[in-house]
Backbone:
């Protein structure tokens, strides 16, 4: 079963907050419930968020109001808006249901193509470091983005080892490791700050991860910690790859400084158990300037940062 | 009370594994118990480890054997060996007790001087990012190293804000934040991977932290994550300061690649609660090449990486 499914008029989502301990599916009955699931990160991963929101809007009796509710769930990932705009074109519930399915099918096709395109690029790399979760649970389809490429490499018989950044504070690395274990791909979880150690030691051939919103100039927002990995990759002359479908590009934004970055609550970091008086700052995303990106891997091919403008042209055509 | 004390023939240590929740002191009755406390990180921080080991050796009935036991507790911090060698010169328990006290007094004086020297250097910086814990609990004396400088700045009336890296997996940042709160110094805990975000945003004026072992060429070992911070500081043109007493220098080692780095158990990362089949890699330290260091702050003054050789000459004289 996929992490986001639409079965007999029910919006079913895999509750990612329970992973890797429990595979529990939630049936969500309204746009408010879907919005809450996105906020709490029961649904997470830019493409999966888009699909879930699309289904929520499809079944809505009040699509104008629910569009606003859903769009405000999380600010950074652009797939959410792109999916909502796509589904909102439907005038009736039936039309919107068709569009929501079509959107998911589009993501599925895009991710399969990303896996193909990325696998050829990664052929020379045996040891890949990744961050956060970009697997099938994050996309709501069969292949993930960055992790979809790794799955494809495995399917083609390649030996590959993955260093999995645990991704504090929400530990999405646990989901990544769980998915890799299911795929029988050797991997080890590391604390995020150990990435530099493994890169500097020469043990990592490439860093590859996803994106939540890519601006027209190639600057992009992704999970907190991405920028540090980009700087470490550059300093140590290893490639830094970003795998994302066109639905994660935002050609209306010309550079990264215009991307709104979500700040989340301090409890995610310091929890209830911490000493009462301590405060925390919890940016959920950071911006990585385009110049750090070796290649963007999309369903339309592989692009240098300078080439992102030309993706925009394909996208609009 | 200090984090390591010798009171009425008892080796008392503050159990740092219980911080910031509980201030519990342990009375340790043998070199084995002290060695276990160092391994489990009930005593941690290079200078505090040295002092605790010194007292353990002082009271030993079998100093040759206990020297070996204590030295093997943790491999990376050189203070441990330096303190043991100093105390081992005593032929009797009484002599060794005097030497162990003298060692602690020396660390105390050194840290007070580091605080003085560093405060003048940091005068222009209002926002400092630090990693791990370098406060009084880590040194076993009144002033910490990097955090001792921040304490001194506060005492001199300076407004200062500290970004505290939480320091996965053992969360020594919680101890740092607890110490800063006691000193009424404003601070926020951040996940380690958010350091890049705050540095790139221009919110951090300097990175300052401690060291576990500094080689003769200025390469140094410190808590995992230090190297990444050094690279981020360089990339963003902010100073990167290392505060450490001469007892943390190892002039017998000519470069960082000769420093033995401790690998710790994967349970520190993935815990008992994680999915059973997941593995983790847990290097406790990394090496930062000397070229990333703006200045070393010691009790003998402030040195560029190229000047570390001259510290060696002072040290031997």
Residues:
């Amino acid at each position: 079963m996929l992490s986001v499914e639409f079965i007999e008029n029910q919006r079913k989502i895999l509750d990612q907050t329970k992973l890797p301990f429990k595979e529990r599916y939630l049936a969500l009955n309204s746009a408010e419930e879907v919005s809450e699931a996105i906020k709490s990160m029961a649904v997470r991963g830019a493409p999966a968020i888009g699909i879930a929101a699309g289904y929520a809007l499809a079944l809505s009796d009040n699509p104008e109001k629910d569009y606003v509710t859903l769009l405000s769930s999380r600010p950074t990932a652009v797939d959410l808006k792109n999916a909502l705009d796509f589904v909102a074109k439907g005038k009736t519930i039936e039309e919107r249901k068709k569009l929501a399915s079509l959107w998911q099918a589009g993501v599925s096709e895009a991710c399969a193509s990303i896996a193909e395109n990325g696998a050829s690029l990664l052929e020379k790399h045996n040891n890949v470091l990744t961050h956060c979760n970009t697997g099938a649970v994050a996309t709501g389809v069969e292949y993930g983005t960055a992790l979809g490429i790794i799955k494809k490499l495995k399917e083609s018989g390649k030996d590959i080892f993955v260093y999995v950044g645990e991704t504090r504070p929400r530990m999405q690395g646990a989901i990544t490791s769980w998915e890799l274990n299911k795929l029988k791909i050797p991997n080890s979880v590391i604390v995020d700050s150990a990435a530099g150690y493994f890169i500097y030691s020469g043990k990592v051939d490439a860093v590859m991860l996803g994106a939540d919103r890519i601006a027209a100039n190639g600057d992009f927002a992704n999970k907190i910690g991405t920028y540090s990995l980009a700087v470490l990759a550059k300093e140590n002359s290893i490639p830094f790859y970003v795998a994302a479908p066109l639905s994660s590009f935002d050609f209306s934004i010309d550079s990264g400084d215009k991307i709104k970055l979500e700040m989340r609550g301090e409890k995610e970091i310091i929890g209830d158990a911490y000493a009462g008086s301590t405060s925390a700052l919890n940016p959920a995303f950071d911006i990585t300037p385009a110049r750090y990106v070796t290649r963007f891997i999309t369903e339309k091919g592989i692009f240098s940062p300078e080439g992102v403008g030309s993706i925009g042209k394909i996208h609009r055509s």
